[in-house]
Design brief:
It is a single chain. The chain is built from no helices and three strands. By secondary structure, it is mostly beta strands. Strands 2-1-3 form a three-stranded antiparallel β-sheet, with no helix packed on it. Strand 1 and strand 2 form a beta hairpin. The N and C termini lie far apart (about 40 Å).
């Protein structure tokens, strides 16, 4: 059931800044179930040596969204 579009919608904050909302990987025309989704965010400042990435649910059904991999490149 989670493979259908609209059922696993979530957002992401990086360093407290909203960078994505209403992401729907199953409904993504370039991807889908078990297809890697790559998104690049630039100009995120880390001042304390810790990168804080916070996925969050857009509804009560999705309580634990996760991001499986990150690549961080210093500018």
């Amino acid at each position: 059931g989670a493979r259908k579009p609209g059922l696993r919608v979530f957002g992401i904050k990086i360093q407290g800044q909203l960078v994505a909302d209403k992401m729907d990987l199953s409904g993504n025309p370039e991807g889908g179930w078990l297809v890697p989704f790559v998104k690049e965010y630039k100009d995120i400042e880390v001042t304390d040596g810790k990168l804080l990435v916070e996925p969050f649910a857009e509804n009560d059904k999705d309580q634990h969204p996760t991001v499986e991999a990150y690549e961080v490149i210093q500018q």
